[in-house]
Amino acid sequence: MKVNLNLLNSKMALYGDNNEALAKALNLSPQRLSAKKNNTNGAEFTQTEIQIIKERYNLTDTEVVEIFLS
Which tens digit of pLDDT belongs to each residue from 2-58? Predict the structure, then answer.
């Protein structure tokens, strides 16, 4: 699963978030979040993490698909 980084980063910026803040909200290290965002070594977001991101940024179902299932 390849993450749409442009869309995710734009939503983060819209809400004034950075990697460190989102990592903390997901209970991840910033390095682990970066690995998941960049799909490094097979790192992927879990369904729970996607749900937290959806709620944090008030994402629609369509936006979730665009970000995480593109």
Answer: 899 999 999 999 999 999 999 999 999 999 999 999 999 889 999 999 999 999 999
The rounded distance, in Å, linking the Cα atoms of 56 and 67 is 14
At 23 the three-state DSSP class reads helix
pTM of the shown model: 0.94
- Residue 35's identity, in one-letter code, is A
- What is the C-alpha to C-alpha distance for residues 48 and 20, in angstroms, rounded to an integer? 18
Classify burial at 47, counting beta carbons within 10 Å of its beta carbon; exposed 0-12, middle 13-18, buried 19 or more: exposed
